[in-house]
What we know:
Oligomer: heterodimer
Low-confidence stretches of chain B: none
Radius of gyration of chain B: 22 Å
Helix content of chain A: 40-55%
Structural class of chain B: alpha/beta
Amino acid sequence: MKSGSNLEKILQAGHFAFTGELGPPRGTDAEEVRKKAGFLKGNVDAVNITDNQTAVVRMASWAASLIAIQEGLEPNYQMVCRDRNRLAMQADILGAYALGIRNMLCLSGDHMKFGDHPNAKGVFDIDSMQLIQTVKRMRDEGKFLSGAEIEHPPKIFIGAASNPFADPFEWRVHRLAKKIAAGVDFIQTQCIYNMEKFRNFIAMANDMGLTEKVYILAGVTPMKSVGMANYMKNKVPGMDVPDEIIKRLKGAEKGKVAEEGIKIACEQIEEFKTMKGVAGVHLMAIEWEHKVPEIAKQAGMLPRPKVD
Amino acid sequence: MIVAKRKPFDEIKSLIQGYKKILNVGCGTCVAVCLTGGEKEVSVLNAEIDMARKLDNDPIEIDGFTIERQCDREYLAALDSKVDEYEALLSMACGAGIQFLAERYPHIPVLPAVDTTFIGVNQDVGWYEERCRSCSSCVLGWTGGICPVTMCAKGLYNGPCGGTNRGSCEIDPEQPCAWYMIYERLKKQNRLECIMKLAPPSEWANQVPRTLIQPGYKKPEKKA
Lengths: 308, 224
């Protein structure tokens, strides 16, 4: 066992994992985090706590992670390379571990341009690949990036993201291979809508033996509306929303578009359960945390297994 | 070359406020090539300043002098006999030139008239693009001659982020994705193995003031 986190135990025991997401507030209200955590508790194995998501300043990911722990939820602490240099990152990792954080997701981060401080100096001292290596070195060798010894190294279950849809498509699986070589333990993918392309991606990953080395959690975001689907298709870089999804949402009865969105998500989850190389689902119900219990139930993900 | 752009006129005007006699020093190298701070631009700026100050009823005596290279002592010497006639110097050189000028004449205020922008290339007349961030550790050998430090908005060393969009960068559809281009070029050259290995964290030598002495020009070390 690398970290002893609940997520690691679930995956290692061969259960189909189910993770959620919680966006910290744009203020100091801990109650908001607790409220969102309430919807997720018992319904997911771990919850991603985003780090200045979309380059917009929010409550620190480690702080919201700590509140999640207090609420009985296991956090997956996200860290982006955009906002910190290697000193700050390693310091935060030590602090996060000391506070009880056991899973971490290593990300490059959205560009500053999209956020509320577009003129900020992006740091990107190291990239997500190098961050994975750093955490692995801290955990397995008990050393900082500089080579200096760590007293009581942090035992972290290391995650990273993969976008199977961004160009160049053939390179995506190689990038996944690089992340595995860097030392990642689990992968959460970008929201999947183009199932055909994802099947190709996972087939390539299976052929290269990658899915035996890493747990892949397929990303799912239920569509709330036709507007959201169009936005995702046209405005979100690297997102692949096929026309058939939009057509299906448009065809839903009045007032039942969101229901149709959830139905599509549940159908996807059913397929992922049987897909070789997929170890679980990462549900990103963006600002829709209160729907998670319903989705988890409808997708047949409940009750969540208990592993000691 | 080093590319610079002229500061907004109002900023220049406020920098020279209160001075009655100044010398505007142009530079004949990079900033002249990028049409920002050569002889012609010195004359144009001086005419604008002259006119603006007359309109403000606050005339100024402003001269121009363009030297070959402001970042080179040999050429700066030509100013030695002139500078004391002026209350301040305005410089249209890059930041390096301006600092060298200020260092040579520490008793006189030296004020920048340009913003040094980047190291770039000439795409067309008056159109320049950044190509190098002088990071001190060139990776072009394994990135197909395309610089990810400069051309990737996140300066990534290990392949494209999730934001690549049909070959464009997430920040702008007009901005090509550096890693997409690197991949395409290396694929054509059958050299994809160049980017399969993990690139280690960069040693950011450009975070400290750097000095370079070419091997043949090093002075012998002093004996203890």
